Amino acid sequence: MDLGGKVALVTGASRGIGRGIAEAFGAAGASVAVNYRTGARAAEQVAASIRLSGHDAIAIQADVAEEEDVDHMVTTVLDQFGRIDVLVSSAGILTQSHLADMPTRMWDEMMRTNLRSAFLCTRAVLPGMLSRQRGSIIYIASQLGLKGAPDLVHYSAAKAALIGMTRALAREVAPHVTVNAIAPGPIQTDMLANITEDWKAMKLAELPLARFGRVSDVTPTAVFLASDDAAYYTGQILGPNGGDVMP
Questions:
Q1: pTM confidence score
Q2: Is residue 186 part of a domain?
Q3: For residue 85, what are the domain limits?
Q4: Which of 153, 156, 169, 190 has the fewest other C-beta atoms within 10 Å?
Q5: Is there a catalytic annotation at residue 155?
Q6: Quick check: is 99 in a domain?
Q7: What are the pLDDT digits (tens) for 118-172?
Q8: Catalytic residue among 139, 155, 232, 233
Q9: How many domains does the chain have?
């Protein structure tokens, strides 16, 4: 799949799934804006690796849950590359708590980081996509947005909202802009460090493929959705999840 000539903005791209997608986009020929909030060194490494492959890349600091940061980030990308063809909203956090014990600040931070950020970034890039009558928006949701999980009610709620946003926005911006989501199962990234070993053992026992996923299990789906090969996909939820959800 060829992304040559496309400009992509990937949020949360200094680590985990976002990093893998940014690197895969660069390998497929895209120019990539690598967003990070705190991981400056890691983001610069991602951008440098893309440039070494012969494609343009910049690292951009922004807290994508803050409106001014998002507007500045998008303006910077437009100044550098002239347009944004693909948005991947990947920035996110993962915390764990029983709902009865959950501090309000934990709930609010989950919604701020995993949902508000997608809204702000989408709103910022949409005018350009609509004016060009071309664009692709990809949300990184989760299989837990489809099935839920104990101790992760806030995370499941935020990801379910992203899935609803995908389906509603796909109808709103059709036919020229496509909107899809990827709903991975548990993926081996540093985010899992916040989850107890007991919970991970329980989840592993549920998976038909009997393993947690790798970032490389997710990135081909993102490249596909960003490519012209996915031109007839919109409002879809694609699930590299090890069989945890079988719609």
A1: 0.97
A2: yes
A3: 7-231
A4: 190
A5: yes
A6: yes
A7: 999 999 999 999 999 999 999 999 999 999 999 999 999 999 999 999 999 999 9
A8: 155
A9: 1
